[in-house]
Amino acid sequence: MRDGGNVKKHDFNSIRITMLLVLLSACAGLAQDGKPEFSIAIHGPERIKAGTYLMVNISVTNISNHDIAFDDEDSPNTGEANFHVDVFDAHGDLAPRTRYGKAVRGEKQDPGPEIIFMGGHEMFRDLKPGQTVEESVGVSRLYDMKPGTYTVVVWRPDFQAGHVTFSMSGYKPEEADLYKPEVPRSGRSATPAASKPKAIAKPKAIAKSNTITLTVVP
To answer: For the whole model, what pTM was predicted?
Structure first.
C-alpha cells in the first residue's frame, strides 16, 4: 500500500504524462552537481524463468531535513510513468525494448498496431523527512529478456523546484534536450546527441537506485 502523505489528486491528462516522460528523457545525459533529496531503493527476484512476469518494487524516501515535493502519476503498478527503468545485459548494453517499452519512451515502434501509453491521475504530494512511498514496475513489460544475466536500475531526476506545473504554451517536443541514457560501464561515459537543442528543464540532481542482478533461465 502506498503511503500517500499530503496528496492532491487531479484528473488524468495525457499531455502531462507525455511531458513527464519527456522530462525524464531530457535529463538523461545532463551533468548534475547537487545531491538528490530523496533516495530510491528497488527490490525484486534474482532468478526467474524466461517468459515470467517480472515485477520490481520501488521505495522512495525523503532523505532531506525538510518537506519535499514529489509529484507523479497515481499509477502504483506502472512505475514507468514516474521513473526511468534501465535493463542492461551481461555486456553492459541496453536490453531490447518491447513494443510497450518503446511506447513508454516515445520511440518508433515496430510495424503493427500502435501502442499508446496511458497513465493515471496526477498527484501533487509532499513527503516529510524520512517518509517513504512505494511503487512498482513490470520490467518484463518494458524489455525483452532472453535467457542470460541482466542488471536492473531505476532513476529519476530531482528538480528541487517545488510542485511543477507544466504549460503547453509555446512548447515544442523537438526542443527537448534528448540524450542517450548513460550506460553504467566502468571507465565509460554517455555520448551526447550530435545536436544539442535547448533543454526544457535541468534537474538539480539525479537519484539512482541500487542495482539488481537478475538471471533469466530457459
So the answer is: 0.69
